[in-house]
Specification:
The chain is an alpha/beta fold and 204 residues long. The chain is built from 7 helices and 7 strands. Helix 3 crosses helix 6.
Length: 204
């Protein structure tokens, strides 16, 4: 958690980690990154750094959905097998997705979306763990999903460990792509209006 300093800190952290493990960058078999949804700037940094490292070594890349990584954190910490994950998307919306553990992998029940909290779709059935700060940012989201939730863990955030765990079966299944083909998962394609649109009274 570094505010606006990710671009400044990320590559030195990679170098430090490689040094700790006695590895050269060329020895890495592939690169994974948190693909989103999330902050546009953060996603571009994550994808761009992964692309740069992969391009320089000729290795493949896997993007892991941020909300799925949160589901994996919920599994690791609480043994959850059904997770509704939510982040604050700003502009009075939440990023929301739901995942159910199917063997060793997560099955997507609700695709990642940007949604008004009061209009969020309910995952089917009961026994879902709410995960992520989206529930803290929008109490109405928790109220909306209350009938499906057994508990809510607002502190859950995606971690590099979870992204690594989720990336491994994707690499094994041949789902990795070349560096040039790695893309963020934005969900919301626009976060601002042009001056002309604002003058005309347009709203996102």
């Amino acid at each position: 958690m570094a505010g606006q300093r990710h671009s400044e800190l990320l590559l030195p952290m990679v170098q430090e980690l490689l040094a700790e493990e006695g590895l050269a960058l060329a020895e890495i078999d592939g690169f994974a990154f948190g693909a989103g949804p999330g902050s546009f700037t953060g996603l571009r940094i994550a994808c761009g750094v992964a692309q740069g490292l992969a391009l320089g070594t000729g290795k493949p890349v896997v993007g892991v959905p941020t909300l799925e990584a949160m589901a994996e954190v919920a599994r690791l910490r609480y043994g959850a097998t059904r997770v509704a994950a939510a982040l604050d998307a700003r502009m009075h919306e939440a990023y929301l997705a739901a995942y159910e553990l199917d063997g060793a992998r997560w099955r997507t029940v609700l695709e990642p979306m940007a949604v008004k909290p009061a209009a969020a779709p309910l995952p089917p059935g009961e026994g879902w763990l709410g995960a992520g700060p989206g529930f803290a940012a929008y109490p109405e989201l928790r109220a909306r999903l209350d009938s499906a939730l057994t508990a809510c863990r607002e502190e859950i955030l995606p971690t590099a460990v979870a992204i690594g765990i989720l990336a491994l079966p994707r690499f094994a299944a041949g789902e990795a792509v070349a560096a040039r083909d790695a893309v963020p998962l934005y969900v919301r394609q626009r976060v601002a209006l042009t001056a002309a649109e604002r003058a005309a009274g347009a709203r996102l």
